[in-house]
Amino acid sequence: MSIGKSANGPWIDHIPGNGLWSNAILVTKGMAPYGAVALGEIDQVCEKLRARQSEPHAWWEEWSAMGRRLHARADALEAAGHRMSAGNYYLRAGMYYFTAERFIYPGPDKREMGRIAIDCQTKGILRRHPNVERVEVPFEGAHTSKSLPAFFMKALNTNAERAPTIVVFNGMDNCKEMSVLFAGLEFAARGWNTLAIDGPGQGESLRLRELYARHDYEVAGTAAYDYVAARADVDAGRVFVMGYSFGGYYAARVAAFEKRYRGGIAMSALHWDLHAWQQDIKRRQDADPKGTPQSAFHFRWIMGCIDDAGAALEKAKKFSLVGVAEKITCPFIIVHAGEDTVVPVANAPKLFEAIASKDKHLKILNADDGGHYHAQADNRQVGIDYIADWVEEHL
After folding, report:
1. Percentages (nearest 5) of helix, strand, coil residues in the chain
2. What pLDDT was estimated at residue 10?
3. In the Cβ-directed half-sphere of 68, how many Cα atoms lie within 13 Å?
4. Which of 17, 26, 45, 325 could in theory staple to 321 by disulfide, Cβ–Cβ 3.0 to 4.6 A?
5. Is residue 145 very low, low, confident or very high in pLDDT (cuts 50, 70, 90)?
6. CB under 8 Å, gap of 24 or more: what pairs does 342-348 form?
7. What is the pTM of this model?
8. Is the Cβ–Cβ distance between 320 and 274 less than 8 Å?
């Protein structure tokens, strides 16, 4: 299934006929409500890209050029002592660098672009949001190279010494710098903490620490729970695990095996047969490289098999919720997009039916609801509000 037209028209299909770029542009535009990008700056970049679709380096050249422009402005404001204004520029520069990095083939250039993006985004987040800490979650030992990088956003609007906490894992091509904003800001406003974490195969853990995706994500889920439960500002009895996009698989897997979580949240439901899904994506990429939302190399990269598509597909066979979803006994919610052209909607009722919990909920968002594209990338607030309301009912 290729990316086609939607009820949102050009907001989703920004560059008609180029699903690869349109999906990436949508993810970037979706961060506008949180101050991480500016729609005018995105428009400037996209208008230049329209005329350069046949050029192999156009994507990263145009996005990184915008990043550099804002980065220089941020540094100048920082030097002048205007840290809050600098934070705005750092945050937007970092997001554009992250967008630029998306289609750079893994290697030194990609690693350096990722490093700069993370550095700028971190500076922006910490300057703009003083209730955020940069933290390390011990993982497979105490050595820093084997810890998971994360942001901990403290609850606001509460007098509670120990607050409920949401652990948020990303998808296949997102990062903690995004989720701490589009999810964490809403959760904080409701009096909850957020641990936005880059697990194996995600964000900084993948880019700078070479921690690749793994099917047994309960290992990362347990590490995250142990970390937050040990904090004096966390109510260990009210910790939820959430994953969005591919993280919907991770959240389900964690909820199935780490029973200390109060509940689980899948902001997109998957996965039953990752091998077959990626095999089909590869077939479509071979036929039309611009027809899918994923680059030809990204899946191999997160699997740690960049030079061996066969090995990546073989590893994918272990990523399945068959025989796993039945182990989910805690309250669990699935929010899926009615016009999801990335992950078929059929995954949502399939997961819902398999979950053993008597307290489970499925919501398919349609065009009238808004947020009806994959993982609500077209309107994140719609999905997050729905999830947060459900969490309030389960505290």
Report:
1. 50, 15, 40
2. 86
3. 8
4. 325
5. low
6. 342/3, 342/23, 342/245, 342/293, 342/374, 342/375, 343/245, 343/248, 343/268, 343/269, 343/270, 343/271, 343/374, 344/1, 347/268, 347/269, 347/270, 347/271, 347/272, 348/269
7. 0.95
8. yes
